[in-house]
Structures are given as C-alpha cells and as structure tokens.
Automatic annotation (TrEMBL), chain A:
It is found in: Periplasm. Residues 419-440 are annotated as: Disordered. SUPFAM superfamilies: TolB, N-terminal domain, Tricorn protease N-terminal domain. The Tol-Pal system is composed of five core proteins: the inner membrane proteins TolA, TolQ and TolR, the periplasmic protein TolB and the outer membrane protein Pal. They form a network linking the inner and outer membranes and the peptidoglycan layer. The keyword Iron-sulfur does not apply. Belongs to the TolB family. NCBIfam families: propeller_TolB (TIGR02800). This is Tol-Pal system protein TolB. It holds the Pfam family TolB_N. The keyword Chaperone does not apply. It comes from Thioclava atlantica. Keywords: Cell cycle, Cell division, Periplasm, Signal. Residues 1-21 form the signal peptide.
UniProtKB/TrEMBL annotation, chain B:
It comes from Thioclava atlantica. Gene3D superfamilies: 3.30.1150.10. The chain crosses the membrane at residues 7-30. Keywords: Membrane, Transmembrane, Transmembrane helix. Residues 187-202, 249-279 have a biased composition (Basic and acidic residues). This is TolA protein.
Amino acid sequence: MMRFVLTMLAALLIGPVAAFAQDQEPLHITITDGVIEPLPFAIAGFIPETPDAADMASQLTQVVSNDLTGTGLFREIPKSAYIQNISAFDTSVKYSDWQAINAQALIVGAVSMQGGKVAVKFRLFDVFSGQQMGDGQQLAASPASWRRLAHKVADVVYSRITGEGPYFDSRVVFVSESGPKGNRQKRLAVMDYDGANVTYLTDASTIVLAPRFSRDGTKVLYTTFETGFPRIKMLDVATASARLLPEVPGTMTFAPRFSPDGSKIVYSMEQNGNTDLWMMDVASGQTQRLTTSPSIETSPSFSPDGSRIVFESDRSGTQQLYIMPVAGGDATRISFGDGRYSTPVWSPRGDMIAFTKQNQGRFHIGVMRTDGSEERLLTSSFLDEGPTWSPNGRVIMFTRETPGAQGEAALYSVDISGRNLKKTPTPGPASDPAWSPLLP
Amino acid sequence: MNRADKIGYGLSAALHVGVILWVVTGGQWFHPKPNEPVVISQVAVMSEKDFNALMASAPKDAPQPKPEPTAPVAPVEPPKDAAPPPKPAPEPKAKPEPKPQALPEPTPKPDAQPDVSALKAPPEPPADVAEAPAQIQPPVEEPSPTVTPDIAPAPKPKAAPRVAPTPAPEPPPEAKTSPTAQPQEAPKPEAAPDKVVEKPKEATAPPEATTEIVTEATKTVDKQESSAPLSSPRPANKPKPPAPPKPELAAKPDTPAKPEAPAKPETPAKPETPDKTETAKSQPKTQERQAAVNDALAAALGGEGSGGTGSAPVGPPITAGEKDALIVDVKQCWNVGALSSDALRTTVTVSVDMQPDGHPIISSIKLVGSSGGSGDAVKQAFEAGKRAIVRCGADGFPLPADKYGRWKTIEIDFNPEKMRMK
C-alpha cells in the first residue's frame, strides 16, 4: 500500500518534469560563416578490366583528376595516402579508411576494351555520408575519343558534387599566332577546353579575328581580311569549309555572333564612316539595321533567350555597355563605373555579363549583373580582353598579352569568383578564344 | 471731572511714570559701547645715515619698475597707520615712457613688478582660450620632412586557397593541419608501465586562410602606400582629470568572455547513514521505504532508458557560450567552396539526433526545411551541411553532458548569405 502511495506521489511530482524533458524543443543554431577551400577527393584508379586497357585506364584517370583539380574547387589526395586498396570495381568501400584520410568524395571506376570501343564505368561515393552519390554510369566511345570519355566522367562528378552544369567536354576556338609581333600570322584553331587536341581550321595566308561558335558548335563565324577589308566568314567545323557572308559594297563588316538558335547573325557594319549593328538571317541573307546612332556600336552578344542584345557604344562619349531589344529600339546603359567598357558577353545562364574594362592604364576582365549591378573585376594586367563563357557559366576564358616587343598573347581562364586564374596551354601565342557549347 | 478729563490725566500719569522709570533703569540696558583699545605699534627710529647705508646695500641691478602706459596700475591702498602721501600717485600719463629705441637697458621683465602684480586682480581666462588644445597638448614631434618608407601598410588579406571567417597564417611546413591549432604535447614520462600510454598529440596548425576572396584585380588595384598621413587628426580636447579607477573594471581581463564551462553534474546525495542507536527493528522498515521511493522515482521517470528516452538530464538552459562553441565547431567544417551559385543562395535547415557523448547519429541527419532554392541547389546545400556535421562531429561536439536533454536533437540553419561571391 505504501509503495503504491509513494509511486503515485512521485508520479505527480516528477511526471510533468519528465514529460517536459521528453518534449524538449530541438536546439536551434544558425551557421552563416563557412569556409571556402578545395574539396578533397580520391580516385581509386580506373581499374583495367581487360589487359589492353591498362594504358587507357591510367591516362583516363589522369585526365579526370586534372579536370577536377583544374577547377580549383577540388584537391586530389595523393595515392600514397590511401589505406584501402580497391582492386576491383565491385569492391566494398570501407568508408572509415577514406574518412581517415579526409577524402570527402571517392571515385571508383573501371576501363575495358570491348568490340573496338573503350568502355568506362564509374561510381561516386560520399565518404562522410557513407553512401553512393547517384547511380553508377557506363560510357563507351571509340579509342580516339577516350579524352572525351574522361571529360564526361569528370563532368558527372563535378555536377553531382557542386550542382553546377558540366563544361569539361567542350572545345575552344581561338586565333593561333606565330611570327614576330610586327608581322603576326594568324589562323583559326580549335582545341579541347584544356588545350589538348589542337586542330587548325585556316591557314596563315590572311589575318583572321574574333571567331565565334554557333550554339550547336558546328559552325564558326569569324572576321577575315582576305579581301583587304574586314569581312565575315562562316566556317563549317566538320569540313573546315568557309564562305563569305553577303555584303554591301563599300562597307566593312566585323564582330559577328550567332543568335541562340543559330538562325540569325548580329554584327557591326561600317558604312560611310558610321558603325552600327545589323542583323542577318542566315538562311535568306536578309539584313536588318538595329541601331542608327552616329556613334560606334559594336561587339553585340545575344541573351540566352534571344530576346535582348548587349553591345558597346561610345554614344555617351566613352565606350560603355548598353542593352536593347533584339529588334532594336531604345538601348539602356548598364555600365557606369570609371574607365571604358567593351566586348560584353552574355552568360549562358543569363544572369551575368562579362566584359573588358580599361581604367587607369590597366585592363580588367569583369562581370556584372545584367542591370549593371554587382560589378566585380576578376583580373588585372597590361592587356586583358575578349572574355568568353564556359558552357555552364562558371568560368571565363580571355586573352592576356604581355607588354614589350617580345610580348605575346596567351589564353587564360578564371573562375567567376576571381579565384583559380590560370593559363591555358596552347602550342604558341593565342588570342580571341570562344568557348563552344557542351559537346553532345 | 468728566470722563474725557479722567482719560487725559490717566494717560499723562502713565507717560510720566514711564519716563521716570526709563531714566532710572534705562542706563543699565542702553549704556554706550566702550571705545576699542588703541593699538600701539612700536616704531624704531632710524637715522638718515643708517637709511643711506641700508639703501646702498640693496641690489642695484634691479630695474626700477616702470608703469606701463597701457596697463593701468592698480591703486595702492595706503596702510591705515601710514602717513598720507604728500602727493597723489602719478598718473601714467604724467610719466611718459621713454621711447624704446632710446632706452639702452633691456626691457623690464614681467616679474619685475612683484608688488604691483600681486595686487592685480587675476585675469579671468576666456572660456575658449581655456579649452584651447594647444596649451594642453603634450609636445608633439614635428613630422620628419623626409619620406619614411618603412611605414607598414595596413594589413590586407593575401590570396590563400582557403577562405574562412578567421584568417590564419601559413602553417609551419612540419606541422599538420587541422581545423584548430593545437600545441604539441610532450610525452608523460611518469606514466605507469601498466597503464595505456597515450600518444602525445602532434602539433597542428590551422590551414592558411584569408577572410575574403582576393582576386588579381583586388591585389593590383592597391596603390603605392605613402607614408604621408592621409588626414590630419583633430587635436584632442582638454584632457579631463583622470577618473578614479574602478577596481571591478580593472580586474576584468581583456580577453573575450569564454563560453561558460559546462556545469558539473551534481553528485547524488549520499544516503544518510542510519542512526546506530536505532533499533534493529526499524531498519527493515527504513530500507523498505527507501526502496519504495526509488521504485517510485524509476516508475515516474519511465524506467531505465538510454539514447533519449526521457531519462536524459535536462539541466539548465543551454547558454549562449555553449551555443557559440557548437557553432564554431560546425562552421569550420562547412565548406561551401564547391557549391554552385544557386546552392549558395539556398538556406537549408538540417536536423540531427545526438548521442549523449556529443557524437551525431549519422543516420538521423535529415533535411527539415529550405529556402531560396530548389531541386539540385537544395540537395547540394544539404549535402554540404551534412558533411559539416559528420566531419566535425567525428570527434564529438563540445556540449554539456548534464544538459543532454536540451541538445538531444539539434537543428542547424546553414545560411550561406555571407559566403556568396560579392
């Protein structure tokens, strides 16, 4: 009886407290400061599953690693630090072994030669969560395209971890230069985004400038001086055949760029001492004048949806950036900082515009919102110019030229955060890069 | 006699009596004050010869005071007992000062008129002059006319692969990097051989970090530092008299307040020992009662439980310091460097259940809310937050064990607003 009474008494007294303890609200905290540092990852090697795939596996592993570390967002952990030895594609991953070396992502892959093709399969693991990230994938291609396979693998890893779109499997067309500075020979060339697989599209018989890819990557527009005056030519990348676009006699045409759907070309035309923007229908050759200002309008670039055009104009007295509807009309100035702005290029994501800025004797590559806000300068040098966006809108490539008689032009790339500025390897001096869309 | 005559006689008589009484007795009350005694001063008479000798012994180089025409001389009041001067004091105009160029002797010093100045009324200092800083400023060294190039420019963050809220210098090459710096521990020589000897911790240093993304443009835009001052500081006001020191403030350290140490769990009260004098008969009764109380407590608390079944100690509320310690621990593992631009605009709320030892239960980590993004951006942001919890929770979070009930479940808002590219 006494036990019962005491039990009831204690329940009355302590019960609410216990219930309160059980119904505690979660502890709530807010984190607003983090760190920005390369994410460490490990590649447990692409395991050759057939004897003739050993070399391919090694090279493919290297390209995947270079792609990821080249972004500045990842850091590869040296293989000498690995604890677990993964010798087969289906080996169970000991997450603790990879956590111990602070690997946050793990790539396990395999390569085999099957029917004259290279087959690659891989898995991506989130080490600290102890689970696979997404499904495993298998790709196949001809042995000659093994680098594209590697880029595709790296693109998948990059996109799954960062959430950004892929861009490794893309190409860059540029002007390859040779000879002394006073007598430069220029020809068009195309290469992988990382500088590999350079192919020349034109010879050095004439000066070529400012190549631009079509949205599907099959055609290139560029400016040629083969007639003694700047003319626009359209080149088929697959066949390397080119044709001059229709022209108005006594005019100069330059700075062409494809519309997003590839059906139109916007360009600058100098006529009677005045330069304005014009649009041409590719199929019919019909032209339309977009601006009528007595000033110089040039470097047009379409917005991704094709509804607007950003261009440079000196109608205010100095070179500034303007946006107008695709059919022409009132233009809105978006650049208001010190210095001169030129060569604007709309981001593939549509949210930003890259440009060249000249101020106080130095050139900069910068980005701004499409309304001109949040301008950020990413580079600074003797001469930086001509930005072009990666297909995912995360990286900008541009031309940097060094001063002096021995100065040379080279291609550089930089993340839009301003980090990871690096030189893109080319066979020689290079300028005027234009990034292709992601290859199919 | 009529009535009026009676009144008249009466008044007359009363007045006469009063006058007589005043004459007789008034002297005692209204006698005149006696004259004050005359003060007599002893005066020694000096002969003319003695006076001349005395004057000859006086210093001769003392310049004679000259009344300045522009400064009115305060009138000298003659002593009362002194003889009146034969003539009134000469007006300044009566003695025109010779022209300065005609006087070969040096100009009189201001202190040459001790007597007169002593009688001058002290001049009232103007308020604005009294506050003039030039009179109260300590001597200031004149700036050197030459440029001194060794002036250290203001520290600027240099480019580093890691961007963190708190900058960290480049770690020494031999030191391992870890999220927090740790001094090297020496091995304990006195460790008993039968005990497990703990491995001495290696010295670690946080990885080099800067507080902001330093672009090439940022680095080169910086202009040449000049040693010239950019602005002239306004002179300080007249220093106020030092306030009496406050002992309680002086005792405070400069270091920021540390998070409060977790309160020690209260030791359970020892059961009182039964009185030895108590009879053996009463002992079983007491034990039975104690057992009943224990059983009742256990029943009320839900029996033996673990892992947050209600037996967790709730303790006092989590202090701000304890929260801050947890935030600091989590944020150093929250790496947003590989997040997409969209994910950097996404705030996610992540919930995690905790073990009593401060380790997170990995399988319990879940997304409970998000804002600012959708789809892949939320997924990337959640995974970055999850990685932060798992990585930094591997060693256990610094949480007070006696308050486990309050942090049994933790919800963390990962808000990357400050980490966006600007």
